[in-house]
Amino acid sequence: MLADITLKRFAVRMRDLFRTVLVVLGLSTCMGCFGSVPANAQEAKTPEMLVANQIIAVRDENLGQYLANLESHSRTSFLISAKHKAALADAIEAFHSALDKRFGAGPSVLLGPGNGYGSELAQFASAEPFGARVTGDRAEIQVRTKLANGDEREDTTLALREGNSWRLVITGPSTRDFPARVSEVEKVTRGVLAGTYGSREDAMIAADSAMRGRRQ
Amino acid sequence: MKIHLPLLLLTVALSACTSPVTLKTITLKPVNMAIGTSGAQGSSGYCFSSGDIPPVAFSPGSGQVMVGFDDYFAPGTEPFPCDDIRWANFRAGVLFDLSPFDNLAIATLKFDTASSVERDPSGTRGTSPGKSFATTLGVGTAPFSSQMPDTNEAVLPAGPAISIVVGGQVHDWVANGVANHGFVIWGPRDHINVSNPPKNNNAALSFFQNFALEVVYNPALNPRAPQ
Q1: Please, what sign has the CA dihedral across residues B95, B98, B99, B102?
Q2: Which of these, A50, A115, A92, lies nearest to A178 by C-alpha position?
Q3: Touching check for B185 and chain A: CB below 8 Å?
Q4: Which residues of B touch A10 (CB under 8 A)?
Q5: Which has the closest alpha carbon to A7: A129, A148, A105, A119?
Q6: pLDDT tens track for A126-185
Q7: CB distance B44–A149 less than 8 Å?
Q8: Fewest CB within a 10 Å sphere: which of A11, A102, B129, B150?
Q9: For B195-208, b where at least 16 C-beta lie within 10 A, e where not — what string?
């Protein structure tokens, strides 16, 4: 999928996708039992079946099943991070709008595969498990993914047995400092509109630093 | 990129053999500009997820293009590290309308480095006028896209003010039937191999503006061009 969209529209698409995740989750998991598994979810009896189920869920864009394949803490983390990312995408969209309003808009930025949330997940539709090491109720599953450009990547994903089903564990860096980053980006945006920054570059550097938190 | 010398000599010779001809010089402005973004983002290591990657905060201003790269890396934690990673390259495409011309003697592409941004472990710095991190000027082989594929590449001179003779490339467009997909400006790095991505938070971005293509031609040989 080749997208021809501006950064602003890209940010909107990201935000909408994150919101879709939140809405689907809100509908597919019962009210008040945040993080539970939908009743009609496909259960995985083996680690390999779990990966296969997840690949099908991604291919079919079945977010309910995708989430059902995650173990409970990961499901909650996924939701929280989706909310955080949506907020950051909103903040950056507002920032770019303020930049264009203050300094003028530039030409289109053309985005390729891998730059949108949907296409990020879509790459896993081509994945296949090629090994699993099971230790009690835990498994390390090796997954090989063929990318659009022909390259291959290999990941080792973790899974836990919950009852009779295997479920994936997400172990990425936490997004708990994202709300603080959002506040900082919003502060920069207000500064842009108030004329605090003398140039587009000064404002972008400030927003970049705010968005990256303590990281460079 | 070279001056198309035979054509220049022919133009002068023809001028000498017939009535005196004054070569005309005009400056063209771009009719289209775009920035192509290539690279990837996601997670790597002990994970099977899309990662939590913040968007890019940089974009070109009015009349500008952006060239360079902007990377992101957030390492996961042991014993099962899952890293968040993004590597993004930005190439610029700049297109001029050469359809009124049939025969050009000299063409020179000129532009300025308005500003630049550089990020490394010591911090983020902006400069204006900027450093030109772009290293290569090519000609597009397809309409503008995220990848901005190019060919017939030449080394770009250092900035901030850049001037490069592009007579041969322009002659291919106006006289040899080569489709004009514009100039492609890129660097300092080429497309990244996904199996060996950069794991850092570095960036090097240049913002270029004031694009102009100065063309010299014989009006008699270009009846559709300004006389």
Answers
A1: negative
A2: A92
A3: no
A4: 55
A5: A105
A6: 678 888 899 999 999 888 877 656 667 777 889 999 989 999 988 777 888 899 999 999
A7: no
A8: B129
A9: eebbeebbbbbbbb
Q: How far away is chain A from the Cα of B192, in angstroms, using its nearest Cα?
A: 11
- Taking CB atoms and an 8 Å cutoff, what residues of chain B touch A127? 48
B201 CB neighbours in chain A (<8 A) are 212, 215-216
User: Are the beta carbons of B48 and A84 separated by less than 8 Å?
Assistant: no
Chain A (17-36) residues lying within 8 Å, Cβ to Cβ, of chain B: none
Cβ–Cβ below 8 Å for A104 and B61: yes
Model ipTM value = 0.84
β-bridge mates for residue B86, sequence order: B41, B72
**The predicted structure's pLDDT at residue B25:** 96
Option in B44, B54, B77 nearest A88 (CB): B54
- pLDDT tens digits, residue range A184-193? 999 999 999 9
